[in-house]
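Box 3.1. Reading complex inputs
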Amino acid sequence: MLRHINQFASPKNFYALSCKLVHYFGGACLLLFVAGVFGGLLFSPPDYQQGESVRIIYVHVPSAWMSLFVYIVMAGAGTIGLIWRIKIMDVIARSSAPLGASFTFLALATGSLWGKPMWGAWWVWDARLTSELILLFLYLGYIALQSAIEDPRMAARAGAILALIGIINIPIIHFSVEWWSTLHQGPTVSKLDAPSIHIDMLIPLLLMALAYMCYFISAVLMRARCDLLALERNSAWVGELIGERSR
Amino acid sequence: MNRKRRNVVFAVCFIVAGMTIATTLALKAFRENLLYFYSPSQVQAGKAPQSRPFRIGGLVEEKSVVRNPDNLTVQFVLTDTMQTVTVVYDGILPDLFREGKGVVANGKLRSDGVFEAFEVLAKHDENYMPPEVADALAAANKPITVNSVVKPE
């Protein structure tokens, strides 16, 4: 078992395997995205209160989910890299950060566009919005830290510690709407008894969420591959790879 | 697991546990400041600030909205199903302002107990459904459950 993990974790094998994974997840992302966009914008019904404006849910909610998920991936991979010194994990943590920051920005921007017509305000300082903004700053701080430290090993360690400190923000974001009175409404899909969203709206929402997930996986692998080639540029397997290509 | 690795694991656990405790204590200390709005019950119990502006949130009571025909002044009653506060507002209400739905008003409490708002925000609930479904629910006399507007203390 451990040997299998070690084999996957070797940069050479990871590079070969990730090439295939990028194609599979990229293709799945395209299909799901087309289905989700058409389902959400054309076939799903308008809301009984919000009318057509509700359709921004198909962009806003998946990006907000991904902003939390990517942070967990980043902190998890960073911690594994920190403890077991697996280079791939450091690379995955570093590659996740810009993607997570983009998802967070997208969630904040689309939420703002939604807030003006629905609530009557672009921005309010309630617990949900403020903690999500802190998440954006955590991502930006992580990216800044990575580019400030030249030694990749040191940068990965410092980044993992920063990500670990910030992980406390994730449950705060998730539960903020339950713990405090906020302008942002409570949870819809993750309610345990029954999600209070109509099935015709739930299906395109979940399709979009899956499309975002597949996009993240293929994008993070693509970034990690580039990063890995640069890191391992002096190793034998990269030399072989380049030799094969140029021949 | 060698010794060095075990130390790293300890350090990781220490960081996470430390941050959790520190954040929990900080959030407990700032509990009041993290409330985005006060409920009518809290206002009637005198827990809301008297001298400075604050926000009040609740449901707009059915058939309580009175509009002045000459200007934009509007008066309505906010309820959390236990207590009520009368709110006056001079301005344009958001599209989602409805009787029976949640709003958050920003303003000051007058000495006569009426809340004078300078901003009214609509708080939409966590239910999403097509209009036909909402009509069918109304026809069948089934209430749409709202969890997020009125919070238990």
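In summary: Residues 3-29 of chain B form the longest helix (27 residues).
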